[in-house]
Amino acid sequence: MTIFDYIIRSTLIFLNKDKSNGENQKLKLLLIDDNQSITEMMSKYLTGKGHECTVSNDGRNGLTLIEHEKFDIILLDLAMPDFTGVEVIEHLYKDGKINNQKIVLFTASSVTDEEIQRLIKMGAYSCLKKPVKLEVLLKTIGA
């Protein structure tokens, strides 16, 4: 089992622990990624699976949404211009708001394992490397 298999399996267990009847529930998701093609594709796919998706194509706007709304899961890209996913995590951590969130990080960049572990210790739940297969995404969010 690879580290990513472990992360996906543990994320599934964590996200499914609140389900009382074993059925997939409708999730309220926030997708934060500067790549509009990715957010459009993921939003269409997840909406088609019965979930509610809100999209932000920049980190600062995504942080504002997190601060003003409650989401079941936040899918956050780390490498964005101007205000990165790392800065979103650091801001939530500094303000003591990160423990109220279920954040799954995405990255296509060469983020080190040490950096990922630092963000997880700060409160992010897991990290998936792009490109992410849609089936893996569904398993990760427990949908």
Instruction: Identify the CATH homologous superfamily.
Output: Response regulator
**Segments where pLDDT lies below 50 for 5+ residues?**
1-9, 17-22
Spatial order of strands in the largest sheet: 2-1-3-4-5
| Relative helix content | 40-55%
Largest sheet: 5 strands, parallel
Order of helices and strands: HEHEHEHEHEH
CATH class, anyone?
A: Alpha Beta
Which percent band covers the strand fraction?
A: 15-25%
- Report the end-to-end length measured between terminal Cα atoms: 22 Å
CATH-derived topology: Rossmann fold
Tertiary shape: globular
Radius of gyration: 14 Å
Kindly give the count of domains.
1
Structural class: alpha/beta
Characterise this structure.
The protein is α/β, with parallel strands linked by helices. It has one domain: Response regulator (Rossmann fold, 3-Layer(aba) Sandwich), CATH 3.40.50.2300. Helix content is 45%, strand content 17%. The chain is built from six helices and five strands; from the N terminus they run H-E-H-E-H-E-H-E-H-E-H. A five-stranded parallel sheet has the order 2-1-3-4-5, sandwiched between helices. Helix 1 crosses helix 6 and helix 3 runs parallel beside helix 4. The longest helix is centred in the first third of the chain and has 14 residues. It starts with a helix and ends with a helix.
